[in-house]
Amino acid sequence: MDEPPLSDERVEIADLLGQRRSQAAQRFRERIIIGSLILCAGITITITLGIVYILLTETLEFFNPEGHLDAQGNVSVVKPSDFFFGMEWNPLLGGEKHFGVWPLVVGTFKVAFVAMVFALPVGLISAIWLSEYAKPKVRNFIKPIIEVLAGVPTVVFGYFAITFITPYVLRWEWWRVKIPDPDNPGQYLKDASGGFLTEPAGLFGLLEVDVYNALGAGLAVGIMCLPIVISLSEDALRAVPKALREGSYGLGASKFETSVRVVVPAALSGISAAFLLAIARAVGETMIVALAAGASPVKLVGQGSVGENVGSAVALNESVLPMTGYLVKIFTGDAAHGTVEYYSSYAVAATLFVITLTLVVIGNMIQRRFREKYD
Amino acid sequence: MAEMTPDNPQSVVRSIDKRMRNNVVFNTVCFIATMVALVILLVLLASIFTQGIGSLSLRFIGALNSSDPHKAGIWTSLVGTMAICLICAVSAVFLGVCTAILIEEFKPRNRYLLWLHGIIDTNIRNLAGVPSIVYGILGVTVFATMFYQFGDINNGRFAIGQTWYDQYQGEDKQLYYVKADGPNAEGDAAEQGMTLYLPSEKGIGIGEEAADLIWVTEEEIAPRVSAIEEELDAFEDTFRAGITEARESRRGPVRIDQAGAEAIVDAAIEAGTWKNPDTTALREKLVDLVLGLDGKKGVDLIKARKEAINRAVESEYDARMENIITIGAPPVRVNTKAWYHLALPFGRGVLAGGLTLMLVILPIVIVASQEALRAVPGSFRQGALALGATKWQSVQKTALPAAIPGICTGTILAISRAIGEAAPILVLGGTGFITSPPRNLMDSFSAMPMTIFQWTKEPEAAFKDIAAAGIIVLLIVLLSFNALAIYIRQRSSRHG
């Protein structure tokens, strides 16, 4: 501290002079910074294009008319029409291979359907309560909890599905009865270890589910999607201007009527955007279905009667293989590079990408439009 | 039915009653729906907590992964998760914040560039909705295999951070090392009098120079073995007799306990001619082997007995062959890898994993940073520009500092998403069973969500319990990240 400190004034003048002198250097520095910013943005854009490019080229390679080796060493040729309109999917088993994508798509939408039947109504109604009815104090308490639910990793929901939902909810003992022994009246059938065999009682027969099933996985996916639906819908409802509500009250409407007839219709675009984004999440969900949904593709053809085919297409209690489940199966297995199974995963991934991206793009488009309306 | 007209006030009153009742009913339904969400969260946490708390211990957190559920721990994947998330965070924050600054602060004036700008802005938002498994596939193709342009992914080209050694084995199984030039050239066969080095303290590597080496030719080895076998004949006979004694009625299965096993082994060792004075280690191994014979008969017994005798010969052989090396023994080329070891392609290692996760969270980081920058009032920038600052200076000195808390919050939430993300890691890492934490950038790894997935998949119930314990650890890590984000948000709002 030998030098006397400069006064503020002198510092400013020195700064100014310094800046003048180095203006060219400053301009050069700025060019470099902006250049590197553009480089970073370029990398980000390359990633976007990279996804499309890779999915596209590898999918085209899958449809290569010269065919590919399969796991057994045979050459199989897959035509695009076989893939996009095919009703049978069995690439891994021996014998004749079929690469029709519909069984996987149906499997995905079975799970997503269950999830949405649960998450959309419950989520929307919760959002209405939080936005219209709940006192600010209660809302400030509940919203963070829902945010915590949104931050739970999906593998946890998968674990919950397989260790709780399926065994303790869908296969609950209270819903099951002992089976009477037809040979000995008054006795019940037992299994090898001496425990009683059970079957679901009465109407709960509909809930006779396998260990891996679309219903349990779907419910878990629904629970996962619930916070998304709640917070996006609540944002949409709260964006509706207060004047609309006050006008409704002024005309003598009750809170219920205002919520359902005025606020919800006014926020409809935002709510539908929330729904679309939630559906996209459900369709793309991987870990839950990899754990809880099972591994057998839906059988859409070849089971005798039409009724049976339709039955297996809509059955929720059986194991299903959704698109994401197939991708996990291929990439965690040993599908060697260059085989037809390896390339089929890219075609499935491309299908998944197109479906989810369409949902997301439409959702974001709707969301932006409604935001502009009230801003 | 009374009509609802102004002339009939009675009906209006009744209708208001009905409407108010509807309101109350609806309020109740809404409340129940909200509670459903909360109750499910509670049940989820409670079921996982009750199942996992029994297995959760300091041992579990510090132990490596194992195929035995009672020995397995989360440490392997905890380190793996930290490693990939560090790489992911550094790369995603750098790329994401730079991209957000460019998009938000440097809007182009040119019409075509503006059009491009709009497309990019929209697309980034859409990318956030792409399923993470698609990013996983992208990561495998781009980072792990690099389109198979560099050949085998387990043996990459342009490697750095590797040190190569020729490894020679002495007759007593002691390993010696000599530094080698690279992976490809053939190592020299062992020559009489060449300088060999003992392993360094870390295992593979050059340690002290090996002294007092004795060089023998291959022809000299075989007679030495047969000499040992001859000298151990008495051992073998006594041992065999002891086992036969222990058999039920001399033909049935062996019946043996700890004391009996020790007696047999001691008698046999006593009878043998040992040049190695220390037989403690050998005795322990043999007692274990003999105990394992309990209940065995027939071929199993013969096999096990043979193994015990071989073990004794081997132990004595190693003791007598100290410092002896066969001339002409071919070396094995081995290597050590520094933490920065890199090669192309990246393979299914930590670096590829971190970059793949970066792909997943990049859109989230960009959108969060954009929103933070957008929330800074335009007057800040205008003030700076009016004072003569350049465009970049106004961003650097006004907009960016004001947006930092928002960027931090968004980034931390994005990283906590990356910590919990399993699908891309699963696609990248496959089902590899990893027990040790990663040691270098290209080492294979396991992350916590992936380990939890693998444990949950196991049919054994004990694995389900440790999966729950793993989930508890994962949730604690995530909660502490979220708490950090909330803390930053609150501190910045208090100051700002």
Give structural notes.
- The complex is a heterodimer of chains A (375) and B (496).
- Chain A is built from 14 helices and 4 strands.
- The mean pLDDT of chain A is 82.
- With 375 residues, chain A is mainly alpha-helical.
- In chain A, a hairpin with a 5-residue loop joins strand 1 and strand 2 (75-76).
- The radius of gyration of chain A is 29 Å and the shape is flat.
- Chain A has helices at 8-21, 23-62, 80-85, 102-133, 136-151, 154-170, 214-238, 242-250, 255-266, 268-284, 287-292, 306-314, 323-332, 340-374; strands at 68-69, 75-76, 176-178, 198-200.
- In chain B, helix 1 (9-52) packs across helix 16 and helix 15 (448-457) packs antiparallel against helix 16 (461-495).
- Chain B starts with 8 loop residues before the first helix and ends with a helix.
- In chain B, the strands form 3 sheets. Chain B has a 3-stranded antiparallel sheet with strand order 2-1-7, with no helix packed on it. A two-stranded antiparallel ribbon of chain B has the order 3-4.
- The model of chain B has no long low-confidence stretch (mean pLDDT 82).
- By secondary structure, chain B is mostly helical.
- Chain B is elongated, with a radius of gyration of 35 Å.
- Chain B is 61% helix and 10% strand.
- The chains are: A mainly alpha (375), B mainly alpha (496).
